[in-house]
Amino acid sequence: MEDKIAELMAKVAELEASAGVTNTMFAETYYYLTIPLMIIIHAGFLAYEMGSSRAKNVLSSGVKNILAFAFMIPTFYFFGWWVYWGFPTGLTLSEGPMGISGSEYANAIAWGWGESAQYMGPNIADNASGVFFGAFALFAATTASIMSGAVIERIQTVGFVILAVVLGSFAWVVAAAWGWHADGWLVTKFGVHDFGAAGLVHAVAGFFALGVLINLGPRIGKFNADGSSNHIAGHNMPLTVTGLMLIIVGFWGFLMACVIVPGEAWSWYGDKMSTIYGTPITLSALSFNILMAVAGGVIGAWIWTKDPFWMMSGALAGIISTASGLDIYFPALAFIIAFSAGVILQPCANWLERRGIDDAVGAVTVHGTIGLYGVVMLGVFAAGYPALDIADAPTVTLFGQIVGAVVFFLLGFVPGYVVSFILKKMNMLRVPEHAEIAGMDTIKVPAQGYPEGIVASPAAAE
Amino acid sequence: MGFPYDEAAWSVVDGAMFMGWGTAMPGVYTFIAAVICAYVLWAGNRSEHKRFTKTKK
Asked: What is the ipTM of this complex?
């Protein structure tokens, strides 16, 4: 009998070990796959920025976009990852109540040297750090790319890359540490809930872009002497619209990466997925709500604009307006909120343009204004939800969400304005007038976008 | 509105956890969303036909 029990115990242990390996492999693969999905966002940004540029600037817009992506990865490796783990409790860099934050913790896991380097490179005993880093690095690159579209056709390359690094590897990371971390002070003190990063990614990036645009100024020919504006059409609307659709595809990876899978030592639960705050979520919730939000945003934008650019921007606005609560919205409510975001989209962009801001792709409105709208809307509808899964957890409130919205606005706008102002003083912000008029491809890109022009093929033979 | 359980704690959640669960609100939202779709189709059709009329030679 005892032999039988021992044999059964051994079998159970073997099964448990096997299940553990399967779970670990699943968890690692899950996050690994979010990375190429998020790279699709960048394919989308590349296409829509190039499509939104005039033919004379198409390649320089591409160069700028690709280079920002490339610089985001190493800078996020050098210090962005450390900022996320070091800053949650605020500027004191002290440890938070969950014990997974503060300078000491960040020093132990997020530097590429010394003892902590074991978590920043290949390690047979660590299946998590690399894929988490990869997912976050792609969040960072996405954030920087949001600003990229707004400033096309007149910004200097290196000045832009510096701005992208400040935004992607620092400003939004501080917002994430404060509002997207179980130890974040916005969460523990104000119950801020921003599951899909409407505020801490989109609003931060959108208002960072606004700060830059104020110093950068409009493209030549955008505004007339009387203050009225001219529409500067991009050279390829189909490319722009396809790019926006690719961003929507990539969003599935982005939002999937906002989920913590169960069953690992670092998981919140053994048996269910959670948000980054440790509150429960299912991928089914995302599936219901993302789809309804995309649909609502498109329909809302169509009713006023009838323009495919704004319709696909409406799809983005739909997701962004509901991103804070994709884990807990009822799908029809997500549709209604997304619809309202689609409706207000173009009027908000026009309002900004009337104030002399030349945002070439509407990024300030789509990401900034709608991001804050989404953060506040969650406070309206989700008041009373526990913000963490702990005893006496803080709850979501309208006041807390407004505090979060204000902080996200400032974390975007202030560094965007200050750094671009310094770059302007150093003559590193705007290209010279002659270069802008000639077209930046001619001035600085050793290749041609359309060496044969855009020619129609001869009619097919009868 | 808000959290659909009496106690504001995730430990008591064992099923639906969306806003309005257990009240009439999900039905209300679904009705409003359906009305929006129908209205937009009606308004869109009217707007399109106005354009047809305006551009008729």
From this structure: 0.96
